Description:
Blueprint: E1 4-7, E2 10-13, H1 15-38, E3 47-53, H2 55-62, H3 66-72, E4 76-82, E5 96-100, E6 109-116, E7 118-122, H4 124-130, E8 144-147, E9 156-161, E10 164-169, E11 175-176, H5 179-187, E12 192-196, H6 201-206, E13 210-212, E14 221-227, H7 235-251, E15 255-256
Parallel strand pairs: 3-4, 3-5, 8-11, 8-12
Antiparallel strand pairs: 1-2, 5-14, 6-14, 6-15, 7-12, 7-13, 9-10
Amino acid sequence: xxxxxRSTRGLTPTEAGASFYSRAKxxxxxxxxxxLAARGTAAGLSGKLRVSAAxxxxxxxxxxxxxxxxxxxxxxxxxxxLDDRAIDLVEEGIDLALRMGPLADSNMTARKISxxxxxxxxxxKYFELHGIPRTPADLMSHQVLIYTxxxxxxxxxxxRKDTAEVSVKVHGRVRLTATEGLRAAVFAHMGLAIASEWAxxxxxxxxxxxxxxxxxxxxxxxxxxxxxTGRLASAKARNFVSFVERWLAESxxxxxxxxxx
Length: 261
């Protein structure tokens, strides 16, 4: 069995090599946790935990509460790997990823932990200048900021109201690949956004942005805890996920997921 491929750039693990490494690393972690448990120490809450998350979600919902988590586990180090793209968990040595929307790789081990509303929103000034949309069809006459990584729509969205279902394709002159850019464009009154409540939670509460068309609903956006293929969640990862679930509940954004994946 070949575990590595040699090239002029160095050694690259084969699929078998990556799988072997992942399983061996997990076996070592489980052994360490068992030893800690036998000593009466909180199992797994030492060493290093590498967590992948989107930049904006981490800034708004994870980093502000990290001191509490770290104080509870003084022997634990946390690496936050922040990127709006879905990175390779094995290649980056990730223990846990927090991902939104449908998961592209069905082979990953995942559990949906929360679901957030998706809203049509903008600043009050934008609505003063351009009017307030009341129906999905009204969106076609507005400048919609297009978030190109939105797995729930992008340019085409399906709204529901009672038994009615309406699909509409929106248009906009500005397209963005990052949520932080989308937020900045909304705050600059450049257009309205169709976005997760997680991305604008503080501003929705303060009135900096306002939701409209709330009687028309969009499919909720799922937040999943994702682990490398074939790996069970470590005690470190499970504890971190529990903290995230509690943080979201306390912030009033998102609802516990009803579907387990």
